[in-house]
Inverse folding.
């Protein structure tokens, strides 16, 4: 067994996974409210040594630690840093200032409805006056968001033919009266949040919904927190690391070739 081949292979595989995550970040650099992802790596054990002059087992040396075959991807994490705010002056566009999520009654292709979280506040009003996402999923009010109840009673409905305003607490005003509230909720531990897809998040078992400290900003959208220049620099770094692994494999292959065709000759 040639350990260097495994080391180079696992390193190259690790860089490929990192590149997949980076490419997804770049693809969503213009996605409203998108939070970029990052990766960590797990490398060799810290100690690869042999006990010498160990009298516990006469004449036998004992190893310290275990030799691993290379590196692998540790975990993929989400960077929750807030993106820049973009003013649109559109009454149905909203952004979250600070921590918190909008709550949405999401219906999948099988017709099952569940609550999802999102930072994408590019909403609209449907023909019946309900506040919905770009895909037509209903936005929940404060009660539905905090209790995790995506029911019709917790949808936000206003008169689509009259103007309305929303304050930073989420209260919806129309004709001088409060006609609803836009729900803003948070999770006590972000380790229990997973990306669901379609710019939404799921709350896993163990995560608890709590009141959010953030504010709601009408006529504003939160941009993605992806820094395109930084991601491009990281892409170059990944490419060079991958090429280094290729060179290691090529060098070992040439060494093995010489060992088999020249050194092995009698």
């Amino acid at each position: 067994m040639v350990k260097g081949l495994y080391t180079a292979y696992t390193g190259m595989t690790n860089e490929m996974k990192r590149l997949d995550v980076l490419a997804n970040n770049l693809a969503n650099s213009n996605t409203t409210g998108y939070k970029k992802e990052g990766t960590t790596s797990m490398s060799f054990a810290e100690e690869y040594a042999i006990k010498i002059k160990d009298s516990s087992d006469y004449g036998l040396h004992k190893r310290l630690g275990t030799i691993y075959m290379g590196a692998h991807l540790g975990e993929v994490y989400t960077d929750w840093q807030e993106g820049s705010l973009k003013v649109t002056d559109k009454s149905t566009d909203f952004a979250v200032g600070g921590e918190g999520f909008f709550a949405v009654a999401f219906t999948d292709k099988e017709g099952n409805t569940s609550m999802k979280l999102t930072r994408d506040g590019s909403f609209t009003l449907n023909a019946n006056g309900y506040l919905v996402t770009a895909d037509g999923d209903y936005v929940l009010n404060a009660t539905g968001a905090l209790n995790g109840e995506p029911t019709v009673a917790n949808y936000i409905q206003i008169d689509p033919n009259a103007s309305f305003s929303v304050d930073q607490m989420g209260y919806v005003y129309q004709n001088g009266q409060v006609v609803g509230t836009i729900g803003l909720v948070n999770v006590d531990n972000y380790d229990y949040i997973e990306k669901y897809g379609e710019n939404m998040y799921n709350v896993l078992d163990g995560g608890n919904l709590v009141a959010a400290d953030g504010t709601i900003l009408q006529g504003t959208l939160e941009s993605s927190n992806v820094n395109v220049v930084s991601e491009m620099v990281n892409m170059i770094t990944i490419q060079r690391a991958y090429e280094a692994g290729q060179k290691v494999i090529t060098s070992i292959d040439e060494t093995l070739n010489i060992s088999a065709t020249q050194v092995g000759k009698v």
